[in-house]
Amino acid sequence: MSRISETTRGVFVISVTPFDDSGAIDWASLDRVTDFYLESGADGLTILGIMGEAPKMTQAEAAEIARRVIGRASGKPVIVGVSAPGLAAIADLGKAVMDLGAAGVMVAPPGSLKTDPQIHGYYGHVTRALGEEIPVCLQDYPLTTGVQISDEVMGRIIDDYPSIRMLKHEDWPGLSKISKIRAAEAGGRRHISILCGNGGSFLPEEITRGADGAMTGFAFPEMMVSVCALMAKGDRDRAHDLFDAYLPVLRYELQPGLGLAVRKHVLASRGAIASAALRAPGAGLDAAARRDVDFLVERQQRRLAELGFDPGSPAR
């Protein structure tokens, strides 16, 4: 399996972790949702991220999930989230999943980092603990981690730690960060792959600023695949038309504390997973919220048909 690099592009879908109603991992649904993402046109997958409920897993479960998905992906690259409070756990899981054939690992900064020197130094510790041969995706998600990585510190991290090959960009507002990274590259800084998150909520604008694709888990991955393809062809208006059709569902899914439940409800409705259950602590949608989402999805499908898109199929 190929590894991520500074030139990696496309859509890497952040996978949910399916559970049954008792909270046990639903292995059959894990296979099914892996197939679903790849059949939707994804270029790769990212597992055990924040929306994959990684903090609720044991280390053994995490390793087995990685084994299962990497094997199922049939050569498509799989990035594995290995974020943890301690470096020993990051290194242990990181090296284990790379031995299983992972394409790279993703590491978010712990919320304990408060100063610029701490943030910069932390990624030095991470890359040394993993070994510089392991490619790292830095997850920049201050809305969840509470860690704000300034443009200047991000530049120093890129300069000083060459095994960080990719940025998962989820700063908000953060379009200027992409622009500044690309401007610095024009001035001689090494290139880094940038894939964007936040449910894909700013995907067309991010690509315009120089992002290489998406890395997020919106329940309609074919939207992200299609928007990236249309933008690559230079059809910006058509990309925005398509994107706008999905915005009501995307907006509903972005609600803090509710987003994963919405995502799992939609994936279950689409047959990608058997149950919308979250592992405790975490609750699903109530009946009113399910009705809201179902109504928005129905309107979305009608709008896609009006625009001449085939709902469920990536537009190339």
TrEMBL record:
One of its GO terms (molecular function) is 4-hydroxy-tetrahydrodipicolinate synthase activity. Pfam families: DHDPS. The keyword Lyase applies. GO terms for cellular component: cytosol. InterPro entries: Aldolase_TIM, DapA-like. Keywords: Lyase. Pyruvate binds at residue 215. Belongs to the DapA family. This is Dihydrodipicolinate synthase family protein. It comes from Jiella endophytica.
